[in-house]
Design a protein that fits this description.
The complex is a heterodimer of chains A (about 210) and B (about 325). By secondary structure, chain A is mostly helical. Helix content of chain A is about 60%, strand content about 0%. The longest helix of chain A has about 35 residues. Chain A is elongated, with a radius of gyration of 41 Å. Chain B is α+β, with helices and mostly antiparallel strands. Chain B contains four helices and 19 strands. In chain B, about 35% of the residues are buried. The chains are: A mainly alpha (about 210), B alpha+beta (about 325). At the A-B interface, strand 1 and helix 6 of A face strand 6, strand 13, strand 14, strand 15 and strand 16 of B. Chain A: InterPro entries: Anti-sigma-E_RseA-like, Anti-sigma_E_RseA_C, Anti-sigma_E_RseA_N, Anti-sigma_E_RseA_N_sf, RseA. Chain A: This is Anti-sigma-E factor RseA. Chain A: Belongs to the RseA family.
Chain lengths: ~210, ~325
């Protein structure tokens, strides 16, 4: 039970170490010495690389071992063993470069996509003949916006004359509303009884 | 453990409701101070009325107390101009295309409701006032107050009052989603010891003649609204002809102190329009057909409320 917990803990530490969240010398030592952890370390990296789609075109699964082997051979044989190019320490440098190129390619393609999209959005709006923006909504009066009442219907207006008539009627009501608001004090007084005559042309001023 | 949570939540709730009461009283206190300031200070304000997607109207608003007389001048700065001058309880309107006239009133029907500015306690039947927080408006420290329709049938407002003078510096009208429908924004304000010079030069003796109304009761119609939002009342009723078209209408003016709502009843003409609802600036225009009648409602109220008022209209025989 204790051992299971121990190894569980080590795996967690290893995982944290890979994410760059946990770094102490003990762990590094353990990883380099403990074969099981060592194997995990490699597998985790492989999984991560696969998930991130960063695998190099040629997969050399056991780079670390081959590098170690190469290093072991090095002091003995002064010239590097060139029988398998993958065994060269250089490979360790090439792989990150491949990775970087891949990332660069992704970044570049995103940038292209953004530039493309911006161009799309900035296309000047084509002006359709007959659509000058004035035929908005019910076309009653500039500055009117339909409100969000569900029953609202756009009433088809048969012809220009009827549209003008409708506009006139609506304008009349709006003007009257504002006049009545102004005259309300006057009317309220009249209801309270301070009453005399009113000149009608002043009550409904001519427009 | 449970009893502890219970006790804590009890304290929390009682503290919260106590805070609500405080907030309500404080808000009324603030509004009382505002009403006092509006009538006693000498001020000169520039303000704009903004309607998102609509127009911007700049105004200048001056008020002064000169030898015990209050003089107020509201002037629209764009276009042909519109001036309203009040000397004590006479309000004179000077507008293009209309002969100048005066009426008896204690307030100018301006960008902000006169009832809100002078007698805010009259609005408590319709609205709740809640103290919100402090912020900065027009370069000054302000206290924000929310004005909320009690029955949610009208738009809500946010009012910002100057902490130093209690003068209003901003008023937003908001729909139920919190979208701003109209903003009154004071852009500069100067409070002075003496009234502004032009106010002192108002020719009090030569104001236009005061208009006095005739009793309209003689030919009053018998339309009544069966349902009205809380605190809204019928202010007047008559039968008159519309400007421009000259069409006769049966007319009702409703008000809750903050907003005025006009109700028009007309016979359906040859052109049937069905139901229409749209916004003109911050006014809602709502029109519907009920039987052989067209009922039109205009005012700063949600179209749903307008519809409800329209549907509730009944004829009453006295």
């Amino acid at each position: 039970m204790e051992r299971v917990n121990m190894s569980q803990q080590k795996h967690e530490q290893l995982s944290a170490f890979m994410d760059g969240e946990h770094a102490d010398q003990d762990l590094i030592k353990q990883i380099s010495q403990d074969g099981a952890l060592h194997g995990n370390w490699q597998r985790y990296h492989l999984v991560r690389a696969t998930l991130r789609n960063e695998l190099p075109p040629q997969i050399q699964l056991d780079i670390a071992t081959s590098v170690a082997a190469a290093l072991e051979h090095e002091p003995v044989i002064l010239a590097p063993n060139k029988s398998r190019w993958q065994q060269l320490p250089l490979v360790g440098n090439v792989i990150p470069m491949v990775k970087n190129v891949g990332q660069l390619a992704i970044a570049a393609s995103v940038a292209v996509a953004v530039v493309f999209a911006v161009q799309q959005y900035n296309q000047p709006v084509e002006i359709q003949p007959g659509n000058d923006g004035l035929g908005f909504g019910m076309g009653v009066q500039g500055g009117m916006s339909p409100v969000s009442l569900e029953q609202t219907q756009t009433v088809p207006v048969a012809n220009q004359y009827e549209l003008l008539e409708q506009r006139r009627r609506i304008n009349a009501l709006l003007i009257d509303h504002h006049q009545q608001m102004r005259l309300k004090q006057l009317q309220m007084q009249s209801q309270q009884g301070e009453v005399v005559e009113l000149e009608p042309e002043q009550e409904t001023p001519q427009q | 453990m449970k009893w502890l949570i219970g006790a804590l939540s009890f304290f929390y709730i009682s503290a919260a409701s106590a805070a609500d009461v405080d907030s309500e009283t404080d808000a009324r206190q603030w509004l009382g101070n505002m009403a006092q300031a509006m009538q006693s200070l000498n001020y000169d304000m520039s303000l704009v009325i903004l309607q998102p997607g609509g127009t911007v109207e700049p105004y200048r608003w001056r008020h002064g107390v000169i030898d015990g007389k209050t003089v107020e001048h509201l002037s629209m700065l764009n276009g042909p101009g519109r001036d309203v001058v009040r000397v004590d309880n006479v309000v004179s309107y000077f507008e293009p295309n209309v002969p100048a006239f005066s009426i008896h009133s204690t307030s100018i029907n301006g960008p902000i409701s006169g009832t809100l500015l002078r007698n805010p306690s009259a609005l408590t039947a319709s609205y709740d006032f809640v103290l919100v927080g402090r912020s900065r408006v027009a370069g000054r420290a302000t206290q924000q107050i929310r004005i909320i329709s009690r029955d949610k049938s009208r738009y809500g407002y946010s009012l910002w009052l100057d902490q130093e003078t209690s003068l209003p510096l901003k008023l937003d009208m908001l729909d139920s989603q919190g979208k701003v429908l109209e903003q009154v924004q004071i852009t500069s304000v100067a409070v002075t010891v003496n009234a502004e010079e032009s106010l002192q030069n108002v020719d009090v003796a030569n104001l236009p003649e005061v208009l006095i109304a005739n009793p309209a009761a003689a030919n009053a119609h018998r339309w009544y609204a069966g349902w009205l939002p809380d605190g809204m009342e019928e202010i007047m009723r008559d039968r008159h002809r519309l400007p421009v078209t000259g069409a006769p209408v049966d007319y009702l003016l409703l008000s809750d102190g903050l907003i005025d709502v006009s109700v028009y009843v007309q016979p359906v003409g040859d052109a049937t329009t069905g139901e229409q609802a749209f916004r003109v600036g911050s006014d809602t225009y709502f029109s519907t057909q009920i039987g052989q009648l067209t009922v039109t409602i205009v005012g700063k109220l949600p179209p749903q409320t307008a519809n409800r008022i329209a549907q509730s209209l009944v004829v009453k025989v006295p």
